[in-house]
Amino acid sequence: MRHLRILASVLAGLSGTAVAQAPSTAPASGACTTAQASVYFDNERSNLNQMALNVIDALVTRTRNSPNCTVAGVQVTGHADTYASVDDSLLRSQMRASVVRDALVARGIQPGSISMEGRGESELAVATRDGMHEPQNNRVIVTITFR
């Protein structure tokens, strides 16, 4: 249930698009805003579950429903919790970013527009001590900038 609330809040936060709105809703004419969302991962995993795919699909739909705006760039930034070593967390965050990048490309986002990085456990959404799982830290933040 917690994951559904997180997904609902993520979808609601996509550039003002509410969950109840039809996917074809585009921003007002001339309003090329930035779209940002977090794609969450299960502990110690780098594969996309259905909720993660839904978030990615919503972001891609946002790019398609902005006919007066073009994608200027996409930043994909992976993160991890503190459960593993610093090196393993960095590697996992990079793998997560790569998986999200691949999903965006598979849905039509141009690979040359995507910048990708992993930050490991250096920017925690929820502070924890070492060796702790925290679902909100296992994420990739996708930011799409339009022009």
Keywords:
60s Ribosomal Protein L30, Chain: A; disordered N terminus; alpha+beta; 4 strands; 147 residues; single chain
Summarize this entry quickly.
Helix content is 32%, strand content 18%.
Topology:
Blueprint: H1 2-12, E1 35-40, H2 50-64, E2 71-78, H3 86-106, E3 114-118, E4 139-146
Parallel strand pairs: 2-3
Antiparallel strand pairs: 1-4, 2-4
Helix pairs in contact: 1-2
Summarize the structure in words.
The structure is a single chain. This protein is an alpha+beta fold and 147 residues long. The chain has one domain: 2-Layer Sandwich (60s Ribosomal Protein L30, Chain: A), CATH 3.30.1330. The protein has 3 helices and 4 strands; from the N terminus they run αβαβαββ. The chain has helices at residues 2-12, 50-64, 86-106, and strands at 35-40, 71-78, 114-118, 139-146. A 4-stranded mixed sheet has the order 1-4-2-3. α1 (2-12) runs parallel beside α2 (50-64). The longest helix is centred in the middle third of the chain and has 21 residues, at 86-106. It starts with a helix and ends with a strand.
